[in-house]
């Protein structure tokens, strides 16, 4: 595990890809997590948000921010891996 | 990039001259009274002497005549002036923008150490049990420099310890006939990768638990870098006394780092009430306590993981 910085970069890229391909609909239902609908009201602005809503915020913002850069980085990595193995 | 005059006499040596001499030449066209070498090329001695003087770095006179014609050319004078002004502009640009990428002024705080601080801190890392006061002193809202307070984090010890760890790892591999130069790079890269992973994991946990702390990223790197000191001790003892020495010293250093981390992070992560020994209440404080324990427990594990393969 984590033998080099390069493998760390690979792991990070794979993790961000995993976050980006999460299915939105399944997370809107009540089976596992508190809803995505955290746009309206974060359940009390004075209190600390709690782990689940923090996690939802994090996942949502990562998906929004990294969507376009991920396309670029993934294309580059695919081409480089095809060329250089 | 080469001035027009160089096209006539094009040895490779000539082309290197502008780049080597661009920086030291600050006053062009100034007749210098202390020439290092007598210029024997009579025809171009004027212009050449003016160029040679200020740099005066001892270039051999054998190369004088072929370059003299090249340097006395006004076009090459202009080219050199332009080149040096470009270099000065580039330097200004870097100086202005370096603060955006690497927080140089903030880093200087972490390297403001002196020998006494380093000695006391190393003693604290190996024996933190008698130290009473772990608070960092503040001076008008900013923490005091490490030189004045032994509790302040610094980056000097972690950086030096990391480099020493790589060297000691090379030594250990060498005594077992397993050494090869790329293994050094692999050790360094692996330790850095673990450090980065730790920092990212802790930052993520701090974000998720919404801790309001003044623990900056560089502080965190400093605290996590203190374990390299114990690792070095363990490996050296392992080299001298075999596995028994390694396990004894590593066990001692692991305990010390565990206590050190808990006592240091308790003040930074936990709320003020808990820091004074009052028992924690509520889910929030409990999560913070778990985080502190997890960070402190990860240190001995990593210390063992990064060193056990070096001691046989």
From TrEMBL, chain B:
The chain crosses the membrane at residues 155-174, 186-208, 220-240, 246-266, 287-306. InterPro entries: Yif1_fam (IPR005578). One of its GO terms (cellular component) is endoplasmic reticulum-Golgi intermediate compartment. It holds the Pfam family YIF1. Residues 1-20, 34-58 are annotated as: Disordered. It is found in: Endoplasmic reticulum membrane; Golgi apparatus membrane. Keywords: Endoplasmic reticulum, Golgi apparatus, Membrane, Protein transport, Transmembrane, Transmembrane helix, Transport. The keyword Manganese does not apply. It comes from the Eukaryota. Its main location: endoplasmic reticulum. The keyword Transmembrane helix applies. One of its GO terms (biological process) is protein transport. It is a multi-pass membrane protein. Residues 38-48 have a biased composition (Polar residues). Belongs to the YIF1 family. Has a role in transport between endoplasmic reticulum and Golgi. This is Protein YIF1.
């Amino acid at each position: 595990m984590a033998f080099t910085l390069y493998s760390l970069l690979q792991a990070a890229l794979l993790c961000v890809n995993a976050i980006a391909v999460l299915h939105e609909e399944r997370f809107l239902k009540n089976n596992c997590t508190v809803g995505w609908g955290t746009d309206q009201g974060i359940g009390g602005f004075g209190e600390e948000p709690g782990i689940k809503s923090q996690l939802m915020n994090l996942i949502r913002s990562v998906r929004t921010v990294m969507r376009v850069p991920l396309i670029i980085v993934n294309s580059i990595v695919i081409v480089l891996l095809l060329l250089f193995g | 990039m080469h001035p027009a005059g160089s096209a006539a006499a094009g040895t490779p040596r000539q082309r290197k001259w502008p780049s080597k001499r661009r920086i030291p030449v600050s006053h062009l066209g100034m007749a210098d009274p202390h020439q290092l070498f007598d210029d024997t090329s009579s025809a171009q001695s004027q212009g050449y002497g003016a160029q040679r003087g200020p740099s005066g770095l001892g270039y051999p006179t054998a190369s004088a005549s072929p370059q003299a014609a090249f340097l006395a050319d006004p076009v090459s004078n202009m080219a050199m002036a332009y080149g040096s002004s470009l270099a000065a502009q580039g330097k200004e640009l870097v100086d202005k923008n370096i603060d955006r990428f690497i927080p140089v002024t903030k880093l200087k705080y972490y390297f403001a150490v002196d020998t006494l601080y380093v000695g006391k801190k190393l003693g604290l890392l190996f024996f933190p049990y008698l130290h009473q006061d772990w608070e960092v002193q503040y001076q008008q809202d900013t923490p005091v420099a490490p030189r004045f307070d032994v509790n302040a984090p610094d980056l000097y010890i972690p950086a030096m310890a990391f480099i020493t760890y790589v060297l000691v790892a090379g030594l250990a591999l060498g005594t077992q006939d397993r050494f090869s130069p790329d293994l050094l790079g692999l050790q360094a890269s692996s330790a850095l990768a673990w450090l980065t992973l730790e920092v990212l994991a802790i930052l993520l946990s701090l974000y998720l638990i919404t801790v309001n702390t003044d623990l900056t990223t560089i502080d965190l790197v400093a605290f996590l870098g203190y374990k390299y000191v114990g690792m070095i001790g363990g490996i050296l003892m392992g080299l001298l006394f075999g596995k028994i020495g390694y396990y004894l010293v590593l066990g001692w250093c692991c305990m010390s780092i565990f206590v050190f981390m808990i006592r240091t992070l308790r003040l930074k992560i936990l709320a003020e009430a808990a820091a004074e020994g009052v028992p924690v209440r509520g889910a929030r404080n409990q999560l913070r306590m778990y985080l502190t324990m997890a960070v402190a427990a990860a240190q001995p594990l990593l210390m063992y993981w990064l060193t056990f393969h070096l001691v046989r």
